[in-house]
């Protein structure tokens, strides 16, 4: 255990719960998260901006390598910017679905009903584009475990948005370099994830899929 006298520290604020409350909270969270689905059909109805900002704030509390917090969240609500993102993404996705992607990948995507058309990028009232920072303002400001850190922040964000009653999708057009240009992001950042956020359309349907059972994803030793 490291010696706290070697660095600036403060007392930990921690609420210890009874075992019963721990199990209850964990179960309620699981039951809530098991209802989350990726949505590709969004209503254009506005959503509370403050709710989204609070969720982004929650995501920014994620742990990161050496506490470098190597992420940038860009909240996009401008209609014209969303349109530009959709047009650029669909251009890349057309190339992906018609030449770049291996046949096996396309076969695995088939049950999910995805294709090169991405109307949700324009229909959803908000997009959150998450960028990973390779380093700080200068290359000397090195960042560590960037993908892992940003991935944890993305998980926090998706959970927070679902808890707030918002529908989401994880979208990764390939490649995503156009997002730096459209959103004016510096060269030390790379687009990691695009998350459309909003309410599902009234006629929204999702693929009828199942999740693995606990015995399929958990090993105890």
Helix content: 25-40%
- Name the CATH superfamily assignment: NADH Oxidase
**What is the top-level CATH class?**
Alpha Beta
Order of helices and strands: HHEHHHEHEHEH
Walk across the major sheet and give the strand order. 1-2-4-3
Mean pLDDT: 95
What is the CATH-assigned architecture? 3-Layer(aba) Sandwich
Identify the notable features of this structure and list them briefly.
NADH Oxidase; about 10% strand
Task: Give structural notes.
With 221 residues, this protein is of the alpha+beta class. The chain has one domain (39-202): NADH Oxidase (3-Layer(aba) Sandwich). The chain is built from eight helices and four strands. The chain has a four-stranded antiparallel sheet. Helix 2 packs antiparallel against helix 6 (146-163). The model has no long low-confidence stretch (mean pLDDT 95).
Briefly characterize the structure:
With 221 residues, the protein is of the alpha+beta class.
């Amino acid at each position: 255990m490291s010696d706290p006298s070697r660095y600036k520290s403060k007392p930990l604020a921690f609420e210890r719960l009874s075992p019963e409350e721990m199990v209850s909270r964990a179960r309620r969270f699981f039951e809530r998260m098991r209802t989350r689905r990726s949505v590709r059909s969004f209503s254009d109805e506005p959503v509370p901006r403050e709710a989204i900002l609070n969720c982004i704030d929650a995501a920014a509390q994620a742990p990161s390598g050496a506490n470098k917090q190597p992420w940038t969240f860009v909240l996009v609500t401008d209609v014209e910017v969303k349109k530009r993102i959709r047009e650029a993404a669909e251009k890349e996705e057309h190339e992906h679905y018609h030449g770049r992607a291996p046949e096996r990948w396309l076969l695995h995507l088939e049950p999910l009903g995805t294709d090169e058309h991405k109307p949700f990028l324009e229909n959803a009232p908000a997009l959150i584009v998450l960028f990973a920072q390779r380093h700080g303002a200068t290359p000397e400001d090195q960042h560590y475990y960037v993908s892992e850190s940003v991935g944890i922040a993305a998980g926090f964000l998706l959970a927070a948005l679902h808890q707030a009653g918002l529908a989401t999708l994880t979208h990764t057009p390939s490649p995503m370099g156009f997002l730096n240009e459209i959103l004016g992001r510096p060269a030390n950042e790379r687009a990691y994830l695009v998350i459309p956020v909003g309410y599902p359309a009234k006629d929204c349907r999702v693929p009828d899929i199942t999740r693995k059972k606990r015995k399929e994803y958990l090993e105890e030793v």
